Amino acid sequence: MDKFRHIKGIIFDYGGTIDTNGHYWGEVLWNAYCRLGIEVSYEQFWDAYVYGERTMGKMPLVKPEDDFYQTLLIKTKLEIGYLIEHGFLPDTGLVHSYPEKISSVCDRHVKEILSQACPVLEYLAAKYPLMLISNFYGNVKQVLTTYGIDHYFTHIIDSTLVNCRKPDPAIFYHAFEKLGLPADEILMIGDTLKNDIHPARSLGCKTIWVKPEINGDELDEADTTITNFATLQQIL
Question: Are 89 and 15 in contact (CB under 8 A)?
Fold first, then answer.
């Protein structure tokens, strides 16, 4: 596309963008609950999901050497523990096996998605320096390495390691400095408006929003909106 002809570097979000093809992680986990027949309502699950996210944000539960399966296991143990504590699930041996089952389902799902994303990353890495910024737990480099995709990125910024999270402009300026490029020569690709698209666009970057379903009134939120990560190979 002509609108991207001046682009010389690309910044990617990871979670919800590369690993799920634009699908929000809360929905990915909920689908795993449904697939496994875990009998809780969406509202109960959502409360547990929020509790898990907040707890992991406050406490250093994830170790730098943890891969994504181990990260999911920590997250889902918090969720199931919350659901048991609040009486939404019985405190039985079967229920205590749910975290391993949910984590396995989601880990396999990510591997399948990444098998489709790798050719796109390989194509783009041959044309541009690629960088990754993720609001993560200090182990995103280990996650990428375990999945065999770390080599596509010239730099990887994990919010926990730099003590700064998106949408703070500081983390974007850090990325610009690493790339050695001005904002107007950088493309930001992500799945959330708040953390990825809006802050990058406000700083002068071009943006591509990865979103499975597009509403007409959302088309102006980013320079381009796509419903499939693979589309990047056609437009860049």
Answer: no
Q: What percent helix, strand, coil does the chain show, rounded to 5? A: 55, 10, 35
Indicate the residue type of 155.
Answer: H
- φ and ψ at residue 28, rounded to 5 degrees: -60, -45
Residue 236: DSSP 8-state: -
Cβ atoms < 10 Å from Cβ of 99: 19
Give the residue carrying structure tokens 């406490």. 59
* H or E element in which residue 118 lies: helix 98-125
147 and 153 in contact (C-beta within 8 Å)?
no
Cis peptide bond upstream of 167, omega within 30: yes
What is d(CA 3, CA 236) in angstroms, rounded to the nearest whole number?
A: 10
Strand partners, 12: 132, 189
Other C-beta atoms closer than 10 Å to the C-beta of 111 total 13
Whether the full predicted model's pTM is greater than 0.90, yes or no, is: yes
What is the end-to-end Cα distance of the chain in Å, rounded?
Answer: 7
**pLDDT of the residue at 212:** 87
Q: What is residue 119's three-state secondary structure?
A: helix
Contact between 24 and 191 under an 8 Å Cβ cutoff? The reply is yes
- 45-103, pLDDT tens digit by residue? 999 999 999 999 899 999 999 999 999 999 999 999 999 999 999 999 999 999 999 99
Q: H or E stretch including 157?
A: strand 155-158
